[in-house]
Design brief:
By secondary structure, the protein is of the alpha+beta class. The protein is built from 6 helices and 5 strands.
């Protein structure tokens, strides 16, 4: 009787483990994202450092000028500058998506991207914030990035703004979205 009880208990524990362990894995937030993408390190990306920051940013296919750039503790800070000719919002969204792609798809060590779009007023010699994003690798997804890249010249969907932590200034809303 002891032997059959022991075998039955072992089989029951094995079956329970097979059912419970996959459920525990789904609770790990760093492995699974809202859209089901699992992040893996393939080793194929570049390592961003202070010594190669300018060289790597210079290669980005942007239509906006880079105003400021900073690198500290796996956080890339970047300001893109809008000057004159009132570009379409779609062009600015595309530039943001290209920078996000660079940070999270072409490098392996950027954990956070602080991205700002600023307008330069040459008459007043000042800069005004239009858009700002606090994008984190742990919350980033290719679907959000594609939605930003293909966004038309109208307000961004709330899902994109919240997913990429994009905030819009009043100047942006008045000048570009609701003129």
């Amino acid at each position: 009787m002891n032997r059959s009880w022991l075998i039955g208990t072992a089989v029951l524990i094995t079956a329970a483990s097979a059912l419970i362990l996959p459920q525990l894995a789904t609770l790990e937030p760093s492995l699974h994202r809202q859209d089901g993408v699992v992040e893996t390190l393939s080793g194929g990306g570049a390592v961003l450092e202070s010594s190669n920051l300018v060289d790597m940013l210079e290669k980005l296919p942007l239509t906006l000028a880079i105003d400021r750039a900073g690198w500290k503790g796996n956080v890339l800070s970047l300001d893109l500058k809008v000057t004159g000719n009132d570009p379409e919002p779609q062009e600015l969204y595309q530039n943001m998506a290209r920078v996000i792609s660079f940070a999270f798809q072409e490098t392996v060590n950027v954990d956070q991207l602080l991205l700002r779009i600023v307008a330069e007023d040459k008459w007043l010699d000042s800069r005004r914030l239009l858009l700002a994003g606090d994008i984190r690798r742990s919350e980033w997804s290719p679907l959000l990035q594609d939605a930003l890249l293909t966004a038309p010249s109208r307000p961004l969907p709330e899902s994109v703004k919240s997913g990429l932590r994009i905030s819009e200034s009043e100047l942006w809303k008045k000048q570009f979205i609701y003129p």
